[in-house]
Amino acid sequence: MTDEFEDCGNGEPEGSLEIDFDRAHPARMYDYLLGGRTNFDADREAADRALGANPTLRVAARENRAFLLRVVDHVARSGVRQFVDVGTGIPIEGNNTHDVAQAVRSDARVVYVDNDPIVLAHAKALLAGDPDGRTAYIDGDLRDPGSIVEHPAFVETLRLDEPVALLLVAILHFVADDEDPASILRELTKRLPSGSRMVISHATADFDPVRWAGTVRAYADAGITVRPRSRSEIEALFEGWEIEEPGLLVLSDWRPAPGAEPVDPILASCYGAVARKL
Ligand SMILES: C[S@@+](CC[C@H](N)C(=O)[O-])C[C@H]1O[C@@H](n2cnc3c(N)ncnc32)[C@H](O)[C@@H]1O
Predict the structure, then answer these.
(1) I need a surface site. Which of 35, 85, 108, 143 has the fewest CB within 10 A?
(2) How far is the CA of 142 from the centre of ligand 1 (A)?
């Protein structure tokens, strides 16, 4: 069944879009795992099957979103004021990349990219940034990197003579090996100047292969490819870039918030790092 999208009770969707409510989508499953309201029966059923295999998947989702917010704050404080957030996700009021970046630097510029029509419907909420900065939204697919870097919103929003932070937070595990993530990354980053950053967070089965085999099956049953990668496979995605301190770590160990309780790596089950273009 497809239908005209009007409102899903979270943000202010604009216009009408064809949404397939019968098919689960990663953005809406993730929203459900985070306790959001922008998800439908197919998303909830698929996410519940994944939770059956991996009962602590909600912890991984929360740790991932917390990492996104910490890493944007860190990168903005280190002097970067331009961000490309590929795999934006459904906006969370006050807790999006531009909210964090523009709280550090009001002139921060953010280009959001996602391939889910629901995220597109909420793009207006993503565009409500600080008037000193700029925000833009591209309805685009990571697997077609040329359509992102050549898009007018990318070209007109970013200055490629100063560093850009490319955020790939919880998206690369939706790219299969035969879709060649390494070549996608080369294409996406080839015009970024030296000093640019690349941030990756990525699911791993390193700590619990059985749970993750079940998670992969649950997503596959919903028509979604998930490819968890080992620490060394994720490290290889940074080839040609210098991973910054504190390194490629389980997300909860990456610059944890002061006073944060330690999290068992089995629960977080994602690695993350920031790297610098030489
Ligand atoms: C798990 S969510 C992560 C959202 C956000 N980055 C975060 O970490 O909180 C993955 C996001 O990637 C998007 N996505 C998945 N595959 C994509 C692709 N090939 N191109 C663009 N976006 C994609 C989904 O629509 C979803 O919004």
Answers:
(1) 35
(2) 9
